[in-house]
Amino acid sequence: MLGSSLILSGLFLLAADGDVLLQEDFQGKLHADLAWVREDKKEWRIEDGHLHVRSQAGRIWGGNDAKNLLLFKALPAQAMAARVTVAHEPKEKWEQAGILWYVDDDNFIKLISEQIDGKMYIVVAREIAGRGKVISKIEVPTANLQLRLAVESDGVTGQWRLKDEDDWSSADRCTFEAKGKPRFGLFTQNGSKDVVRWVRFDRLIVEKLP
Fold first, then answer.
1. Residue 125 and residue 196: Cα distance in Å, rounded?
2. Are 85 and 51 in contact (CB under 8 A)?
3. Are 150 and 168 in contact (CB under 8 A)?
4. Which residue of 113, 160, 163, 207 has the smallest Cβ count within 10 Å?
5. Could you give the CA distance from residue 89 to residue 96 in angstroms, rounded to a whole number?
6. pTM of this prediction?
Protein backbone atom coordinates (compact mmCIF):
# COMPACT_ATOMS: atom_id res chain seq x y z
CA MET A 1 0.00 0.00 0.00
CA LEU A 2 1.32 3.45 -0.91
CA GLY A 3 2.26 5.92 1.77
CA SER A 4 0.57 9.27 2.34
CA SER A 5 0.68 11.71 -0.57
CA LEU A 6 0.73 15.42 -1.33
CA ILE A 7 -0.88 16.50 -4.60
CA LEU A 8 0.23 19.81 -6.09
CA SER A 9 -0.63 21.05 -9.60
CA GLY A 10 -0.36 17.68 -11.30
CA LEU A 11 2.83 16.58 -9.50
CA PHE A 12 2.30 13.77 -7.01
CA LEU A 13 4.80 13.43 -4.14
CA LEU A 14 4.41 10.18 -2.22
CA ALA A 15 6.06 8.98 0.95
CA ALA A 16 9.37 7.18 0.67
CA ASP A 17 7.77 3.81 1.49
CA GLY A 18 5.62 3.99 -1.64
CA ASP A 19 6.35 2.80 -5.16
CA VAL A 20 5.94 6.17 -6.89
CA LEU A 21 8.21 9.04 -5.84
CA LEU A 22 7.17 11.66 -8.38
CA GLN A 23 4.49 11.82 -11.06
CA GLU A 24 3.75 14.65 -13.47
CA ASP A 25 0.57 14.25 -15.49
CA PHE A 26 0.88 17.62 -17.28
CA GLN A 27 -2.39 19.11 -16.09
CA GLY A 28 -2.31 22.88 -15.84
CA LYS A 29 0.89 24.56 -14.67
CA LEU A 30 4.16 22.75 -14.05
CA HIS A 31 5.05 22.32 -10.38
CA ALA A 32 7.83 24.41 -8.82
CA ASP A 33 9.99 21.28 -8.40
CA LEU A 34 10.32 21.14 -12.19
CA ALA A 35 12.81 23.54 -13.74
CA TRP A 36 13.74 24.53 -17.29
CA VAL A 37 17.29 24.81 -18.59
CA ARG A 38 17.55 27.48 -21.32
CA GLU A 39 13.81 27.90 -21.42
CA ASP A 40 12.24 29.08 -24.68
CA LYS A 41 8.74 29.93 -23.47
CA LYS A 42 7.20 30.16 -26.93
CA GLU A 43 8.28 26.64 -27.84
CA TRP A 44 6.53 24.53 -25.22
CA ARG A 45 2.98 24.15 -23.98
CA ILE A 46 0.75 21.90 -21.89
CA GLU A 47 -2.41 20.74 -23.62
CA ASP A 48 -4.96 18.01 -22.79
CA GLY A 49 -2.64 16.20 -20.38
CA HIS A 50 0.40 16.30 -22.66
CA LEU A 51 3.62 18.30 -22.66
CA HIS A 52 4.49 19.52 -26.16
CA VAL A 53 8.06 20.70 -26.75
CA ARG A 54 9.32 21.90 -30.10
CA SER A 55 12.19 19.86 -31.54
CA GLN A 56 14.82 22.56 -32.02
CA ALA A 57 18.27 22.59 -33.57
CA GLY A 58 20.34 22.85 -30.38
CA ARG A 59 22.02 19.95 -28.62
CA ILE A 60 23.79 18.83 -25.48
CA TRP A 61 25.62 15.96 -27.18
CA GLY A 62 28.64 17.66 -28.75
CA GLY A 63 27.30 21.08 -27.81
CA ASN A 64 25.66 22.92 -24.93
CA ASP A 65 22.85 24.89 -26.53
CA ALA A 66 19.80 22.62 -26.44
CA LYS A 67 16.75 24.57 -25.29
CA ASN A 68 13.88 23.55 -23.03
CA LEU A 69 15.46 20.79 -20.98
CA LEU A 70 12.93 20.04 -18.23
CA LEU A 71 14.44 18.72 -14.99
CA PHE A 72 13.01 17.34 -11.77
CA LYS A 73 14.58 18.36 -8.48
CA ALA A 74 17.40 16.13 -7.23
CA LEU A 75 16.18 13.22 -5.11
CA PRO A 76 17.99 11.34 -2.32
CA ALA A 77 20.29 8.61 -3.63
CA GLN A 78 18.34 5.37 -4.02
CA ALA A 79 17.42 2.75 -6.61
CA MET A 80 14.81 4.42 -8.83
CA ALA A 81 13.64 4.77 -12.40
CA ALA A 82 12.00 7.43 -14.59
CA ARG A 83 9.61 6.55 -17.40
CA VAL A 84 7.71 8.55 -19.99
CA THR A 85 5.83 8.09 -23.25
CA VAL A 86 7.40 9.90 -26.22
CA ALA A 87 5.61 10.64 -29.50
CA HIS A 88 7.24 12.54 -32.38
CA GLU A 89 7.93 12.54 -36.12
CA PRO A 90 11.66 13.24 -36.48
CA LYS A 91 12.92 14.06 -39.99
CA GLU A 92 16.43 15.43 -39.46
CA LYS A 93 19.33 13.01 -39.09
CA TRP A 94 19.97 12.52 -35.35
CA GLU A 95 16.75 14.31 -34.40
CA GLN A 96 15.84 12.86 -31.01
CA ALA A 97 13.88 13.08 -27.77
CA GLY A 98 14.03 11.24 -24.48
CA ILE A 99 15.06 11.00 -20.84
CA LEU A 100 18.18 12.32 -19.13
CA TRP A 101 20.06 11.43 -15.96
CA TYR A 102 21.67 14.85 -15.82
CA VAL A 103 24.29 16.65 -13.73
CA ASP A 104 25.08 19.33 -16.32
CA ASP A 105 25.56 19.72 -20.07
CA ASP A 106 28.88 17.84 -19.94
CA ASN A 107 27.86 15.06 -17.56
CA PHE A 108 24.74 13.01 -18.32
CA ILE A 109 23.27 9.76 -19.58
CA LYS A 110 20.58 9.94 -22.24
CA LEU A 111 18.01 7.36 -23.36
CA ILE A 112 16.49 8.52 -26.62
CA SER A 113 14.24 7.81 -29.57
CA GLU A 114 16.40 8.93 -32.51
CA GLN A 115 16.05 9.11 -36.31
CA ILE A 116 19.14 8.17 -38.35
CA ASP A 117 18.98 7.89 -42.15
CA GLY A 118 15.24 7.24 -42.16
CA LYS A 119 15.29 4.57 -39.45
CA MET A 120 14.35 4.82 -35.79
CA TYR A 121 16.63 3.75 -32.97
CA ILE A 122 16.69 3.52 -29.20
CA VAL A 123 20.08 4.85 -28.09
CA VAL A 124 21.82 4.83 -24.72
CA ALA A 125 24.72 7.29 -24.58
CA ARG A 126 26.87 8.81 -21.87
CA GLU A 127 28.89 12.00 -21.57
CA ILE A 128 31.37 12.54 -18.73
CA ALA A 129 33.52 15.69 -18.51
CA GLY A 130 32.40 16.53 -22.04
CA ARG A 131 33.56 13.23 -23.54
CA GLY A 132 30.75 11.26 -25.14
CA LYS A 133 30.35 7.54 -25.70
CA VAL A 134 27.49 5.70 -27.40
CA ILE A 135 26.70 2.63 -25.27
CA SER A 136 24.13 0.97 -27.54
CA LYS A 137 21.90 1.58 -30.57
CA ILE A 138 18.88 -0.63 -31.28
CA GLU A 139 16.62 -0.29 -34.31
CA VAL A 140 12.93 -0.06 -33.41
CA PRO A 141 9.76 -0.03 -35.55
CA THR A 142 8.37 3.34 -34.47
CA ALA A 143 9.23 6.75 -33.06
CA ASN A 144 6.35 6.54 -30.58
CA LEU A 145 7.09 4.43 -27.51
CA GLN A 146 7.82 4.37 -23.81
CA LEU A 147 11.26 4.96 -22.34
CA ARG A 148 12.51 3.98 -18.87
CA LEU A 149 15.86 4.91 -17.31
CA ALA A 150 16.68 2.87 -14.18
CA VAL A 151 19.37 4.09 -11.78
CA GLU A 152 21.02 1.78 -9.26
CA SER A 153 24.23 1.98 -7.23
CA ASP A 154 26.16 -0.12 -9.75
CA GLY A 155 24.88 1.35 -13.00
CA VAL A 156 22.14 2.90 -15.14
CA THR A 157 19.94 0.85 -17.49
CA GLY A 158 17.94 2.08 -20.46
CA GLN A 159 14.71 0.25 -21.29
CA TRP A 160 11.89 0.63 -23.81
CA ARG A 161 8.53 -0.83 -24.80
CA LEU A 162 5.81 -0.03 -27.31
CA LYS A 163 2.80 -0.04 -24.98
CA ASP A 164 1.76 -0.58 -21.37
CA GLU A 165 1.03 -4.29 -21.77
CA ASP A 166 4.53 -5.09 -23.08
CA ASP A 167 7.46 -6.17 -20.94
CA TRP A 168 10.36 -3.73 -20.79
CA SER A 169 13.20 -4.52 -23.23
CA SER A 170 16.72 -3.59 -22.16
CA ALA A 171 18.65 -1.21 -24.41
CA ASP A 172 21.87 -1.48 -22.36
CA ARG A 173 23.53 -0.68 -19.05
CA CYS A 174 26.45 1.57 -18.16
CA THR A 175 28.20 3.14 -15.21
CA PHE A 176 28.09 6.87 -14.43
CA GLU A 177 30.88 8.24 -12.25
CA ALA A 178 30.24 11.95 -12.75
CA LYS A 179 30.31 14.03 -9.57
CA GLY A 180 27.32 16.12 -8.58
CA LYS A 181 23.63 15.62 -7.92
CA PRO A 182 22.04 14.12 -11.03
CA ARG A 183 18.39 14.68 -11.83
CA PHE A 184 15.94 13.08 -14.19
CA GLY A 185 14.83 15.21 -17.10
CA LEU A 186 13.28 15.39 -20.56
CA PHE A 187 14.82 16.93 -23.65
CA THR A 188 14.91 17.21 -27.45
CA GLN A 189 17.89 17.69 -29.75
CA ASN A 190 18.90 18.20 -33.40
CA GLY A 191 15.54 19.36 -34.71
CA SER A 192 15.05 21.66 -37.68
CA LYS A 193 15.87 25.36 -37.59
CA ASP A 194 13.11 26.14 -40.06
CA VAL A 195 10.41 23.46 -39.87
CA VAL A 196 8.29 23.32 -36.71
CA ARG A 197 7.84 19.81 -35.29
CA TRP A 198 6.63 18.97 -31.80
CA VAL A 199 7.57 16.20 -29.40
CA ARG A 200 4.76 15.03 -27.11
CA PHE A 201 5.62 13.73 -23.64
CA ASP A 202 2.96 11.92 -21.61
CA ARG A 203 2.92 11.10 -17.89
CA LEU A 204 6.44 11.31 -16.48
CA ILE A 205 6.84 9.00 -13.47
CA VAL A 206 9.75 8.45 -11.11
CA GLU A 207 9.41 5.27 -9.07
CA LYS A 208 11.37 3.30 -6.52
CA LEU A 209 12.92 0.06 -7.69
CA PRO A 210 12.32 -3.15 -5.69
1. 26
2. no
3. no
4. 163
5. 9
6. 0.91
List beta partners, residue 51.
46, 201
CA dihedral 21, 27, 29, 33 (to 10 degrees): 10
- Strands 119-128 and 131-140: what pairing? antiparallel
Sketch out the chain's domains with CATH numbers: 34-208 (2.60.120.200)
The vertex-179 CA angle with 178 and 184, nearest 5°, equals 70
Closest CA to 7 of 17, 24, 202: 24
- Which of these, 46, 69, 85, 110, lies nearest to 201 by C-alpha position? 85
- pLDDT by residue (tens digit) across 124-172? 999 999 999 999 999 999 999 999 999 999 999 999 999 999 999 999 9
CA-based torsion, 201, 99, 60, 71: positive or negative? positive
Q: In angstroms, rounded to a whole number, what is the distance separating the alpha carbons of residues 113 and 202? A: 14
Rounded to whole angstroms, the Cα distance separating 111 from 171 reads 9
